[in-house]
Amino acid sequence: MKPSPRLVPLAVIIAVALAGPLTPARAGVPTAPAFSLHTVDGKTVRLSELRGRPVILDFWATWCAPCKSSMPHLSAMQSRYRDRGLVILGLSMDDDDPQVVRRFADRLGLTFRVAVADDHVLDAYGPIRALPTTVYISRRGEIVRRVVGYIDVETMETYVRELLP
Q1: Predicted model pTM
Q2: What's the CA gap between 73 and 67, in Å, rounded?
Q3: How far apart are CA 59 and CA 135, in angstroms?
């Protein structure tokens, strides 16, 4: 009996599932929703202005222990890959005054931009049910990966390098 051409072996399904991030060649890759936010240092950042650059959006909070642990890694990635166009934007989920978030970022010596996420961004990129939640956006403006939870430095490095070619 000849197998149906519509049946795919389980090993192929598993291999595809484990193949890694979505790439623009795959159908259904979502485009990152547009936004405009004020950073904690009073500047405006618009996703549209970052088109052509790889972007990482990191949703975090000052009270989140795993978020605090990942901040130095994100800062190191921003410093290491800034010349290759990488933009990391930390989007605080804190309800506090933005200056509280700014002082927190300054204490940690963050090298990436920080803004407070507004309802528009949370609706567009949500639901954000756990922190940190990190969204990887390709140079084409497509969401290629979304990670919920802490990312160790080696994995983060792998994900960042996938954005850079």
Answers
A1: 0.82
A2: 10
A3: 8
